[in-house]
Design goal:
Helix content is about 55%, strand content about 5%. It is mainly alpha-helical and about 700 residues long. Among the domains are: about 30-130 and about 130-170, Endopeptidase. Chain P, domain 1 (Glutathione S-transferase Yfyf (Class Pi), Chain A, domain 2, Up-down Bundle), CATH 1.20.1050.40; about 205-270, no CATH class; about 380-560 and about 640-700, Neurolysin, domain 3 (Orthogonal Bundle). The longest helix is centred in the middle third of the chain and has 32 residues, at about 320-350.
Length: about 700
């Protein structure tokens, strides 16, 4: 899930009517009650000029709410201090939810400028709250009496989490250090925004592979060629074929193109993003980010930024993460070296007089898949029409939890391609809304993520339903060919849908804890959903040929099952390499700096013995998770959570029913609805009845 912007007050994304203020522009949609269905944002009415005034007004209102708490002369209590703090900032959160979601999913130059302008304002506002001595004094008084003032378990946790947040954000610092922290936060906010904007611009503008002659398309499937022709037309290159640095474009080219020289060109274009010494270069920016984060960690009493970030995760300390990653690294590296041998033998047998390189991997991996498993991904795609896969994941949710999804046509959307579905409980009651935004465009960041326009929450003891959004970059329809998904696209959609279910099912009285789980727990709800995608009964549900409607044959399902461990050496190694690189950057000590980013990256990868045929999943200059997206010192969480998801799904498998209703109800309750009520491992044990085992993951990936 992509983290767009983080304030101390949890992002409660609600459409609210503006409180009465003097001289508020009522033509601004953020200052009036939304009369849209389900109170969703009226996207067609929101213009760029509305954001900045709304942010300023939101800050003003939030400041007034905080002042009201401070000015209360009664003895600080949960009800007069923590509760109003927990429910404060609704207008600001609403504005941020719309703006930052759209700034990632459908941006433009003006929005990017607004982002650069408002980011320091929001950082300063955040610091004004967390470093407010009077407010913290009241919170501290409630904290110190939390166990003797008649609070229930949920309220005690809210108090503890707020106290922890304030301390981690500088509340205990002296005035001079608070001022230092403010400046660090302001600069970090500016730099991370710039990092992401550079990456989007570089992805869109730095490299395009234009093919003029049809013979240069040798090996590419019909759907890939059609998509490239459409891309060319959209770029005023009629009669040509255009391949870009968006994954639905470059990955199929690497998989199928017989032109090795062109495969190298487009892959170099991809892995050199923001490393071209131009206006979009990110090397100096990330150097500065790493140094500033280290300095901030020292100011807050930690040895490095990794220690600061991981302190509130399940792993607790960086050393535990390194130990965990290294245990997986050795068997994964061994497996990847075997995969290299298999591919090199094909190259040699075909008379290729060259050594396998990183831009060859996808092409020869496909040949291995066909040779070992008699499976070509181009055989699968016709059965994975996007709409069928979407309906298949809805079906899985229905089988597990009894919920349904119904497409709505009367809901405002921010782009014509966006779809909206209403989620309902088994009894027909409203659960929430789900926005789906499938395809790449120049205005959208790369990758896939799940976010929300409104989080589930309570106001005046009434539950307000969530509005969740999934944003992807799947293959577009081309000509008369619909959007046909790769297997990676299929699992990605199921993955993000798992996050969406987490958001839809979240149920907690307090914003600070409802749905707020440790970073290395948050990928459990998403990754467990991927397991169902490859189950035969599920494949039969959504695997239907887009031309004939015929279900995917059993023989092809069997091939998918047998090839489940295919390429796992590569996939695990490239991921672990990026995870370790992320940690290495954030083990920097306060006061230290990185003289040369490329040298640092090279040394980091040489230390772990990364083979030349594989590069990290994200090289430094386009590592958005680490330097923009909120996963700094936390990219490891996907594989940490993979242990949990493999162990959890193993429980379903061993029960003899992958749709075991009893297990599903427990998973929903403890890991989805109430996940923030206790520490992550406590909640997991409540579901599973035992500690997770790493064995199911090793077996699943063929690393045992």
């Amino acid at each position: 899930m992509k983290q767009l912007f983080v304030l101390l007050i949890p992002t409660i994304l609600m459409a609210v009517s503006c409180k009465k203020q003097d001289k508020v522009d009522r033509s601004n949609p953020f200052f009036t009650e939304w009369d849209t269905p389900f109170g969703v944002p009226p996207f067609e009415k929101i213009k760029n000029e509305h954001y900045l005034p709304a942010v300023k007004e939101g800050i003003k209102q939030h400041e007034a709410e905080i002042a009201s708490i401070i000015e209360n002369k009664e003895e600080p209590s949960f009800n007069n201090t923590l509760l109003p703090l927990d429910k404060s900032g609704d207008l600001l959160t609403t504005v941020n939810s719309v703006f930052f979601n759209l700034e990632s999913a459908h941006t433009n130059d003006e929005m990017q400028k607004i982002a650069r302008d408002v980011a320091p304002m929001l950082s300063a506002h955040h610091d004004d709250i967390t470093m407010n001595d009077d407010l913290f004094s009241k919170i501290k008084q409630v904290y110190e009496k939390r166990n003797s003032s008649g609070l229930d378990k949920s309220q005690i946790r809210v108090v503890e989490k707020y106290y922890e947040s304030f301390v981690r954000n500088g509340a205990n610092l002296n005035p001079a250090d608070k001022e230092k922290l403010r400046k660090l936060n302001e600069e970090l906010t500016r730099l991370t925004v710039q990092f992401g904007q550079n990456l989007l611009a570089e992805t869109n503008n730095s490299y395009k592979l234009i093919i003029d002659h049809k013979e240069d398309l040798a090996g590419l499937p019909e759907s890939v060629i059609a998509g490239a022709a459409d891309e060319a037309v959209a770029d005023s290159l009629e009669g040509k074929w255009l391949f870009t640095l968006h994954k639905p474009s470059w990955i199929p080219f690497l998989q199928y193109s017989e032109r090795r020289d062109l495969r190298e060109k487009i892959y170099r274009g991809y892995f050199m993003r923001c490393d071209n010494n131009n206006e979009y270069d990110n090397k100096d920016i990330l150097r500065r980010i790493a140094a500033l984060r280290a300095e901030r960690a020292g100011l807050l009493g930690f040895n490095n930024h990794a220690s600061y970030k991981i302190d509130i995760n399940m792993a607790k300390i960086p050393e535990n993460v390194y130990d965990f990653l290294y245990k997986l690294w050795d068997p994964a590296l061994k497996r990847s070296k075997q995969e290299v041998k298999e591919m090199q033998s094909i190259i040699d047998a075909e008379g290729g007089n060259f050594k396998l390189a990183s831009w060859d991997w996808w092409f020869y991996a496909e040949k291995v898949r066909k040779q070992k498993y008699n499976l070509d991904e181009s055989e699968l795609k016709p059965y994975f029409k996007l709409e069928n896969v979407r309906d298949g994941m809805f079906w899985v949710a229905n089988q597990l939890y009894g919920i349904t999804f119904t497409k709505l046509g009367n809901i405002p959307v921010y782009h014509p391609e966006v779809e909206v579905y209403e989620a309902k409980e088994a009894d027909g009651s409203h659960l929430g809304l789900l926005y789906l935004d499938y395809f790449p465009r120049a205005s959208k960041s790369g990758g896939a993520w799940c976010t929300s326009f409104r989080d589930a929450k309570y106001r005046d003891d009434k539950k307000i339903a969530p509005v969740i959004s999934i944003v992807c970059n799947a293959t577009k329809p081309a000509g008369d060919i619909p959007s046909l998904l790769s297997w990676d696209d299929v699992t990605t959609l199921f993955h993000e849908f798992g996050h969406a279910l987490h958001g839809l099912f979240t149920d907690g009285k307090y914003d600070r804890t409802a749905g707020k789980v440790p970073r290395d727990f948050v990928e459990l709800p998403s990754q467990i959903m991927e397991n169902w995608a490859s189950e035969p009964v599920v494949l039969k549900q959504f695997g239907k040929h887009y031309k004939t409607g015929e279900p995917i044959p059993d023989a092809l399902i069997e091939k998918i099952q047998k090839s489940g461990q295919f390429n796992q050496g590569f996939e695990t190694v490239e991921y672990l390499a990026a995870s370790i690189l992320d940690l290495d950057y954030h083990m920097l000590k306060p006061g230290d700096s990185i003289p040369d980013v490329l040298a640092f990256e090279k040394q980091s990868m040489e230390r772990i013995g990364l083979i030349s045929e594989i590069i990290p999943r994200y090289r430094s200059t386009y590592f958005a998770h680490a330097f923009e997206g909120g996963y700094d010192a936390g990219y490891y969480v996907y594989i940490w959570a993979a242990v949990l998801d493999a162990d959890a799904f193993d429980a379903f498998k061993k029960s003899g029913d992958i749709f075991n209703k009893e297990l599903a109800a427990k998973f929903r309750k403890y890991c989805l609805a109430e996940g923030g009520e206790e520490e992550g491992m406590v909640q997991y044990r409540l579901f599973r009845g035992q500690d997770p085992s790493v064995e199911p993951l090793l077996v699943k990936r063929g690393l045992r």
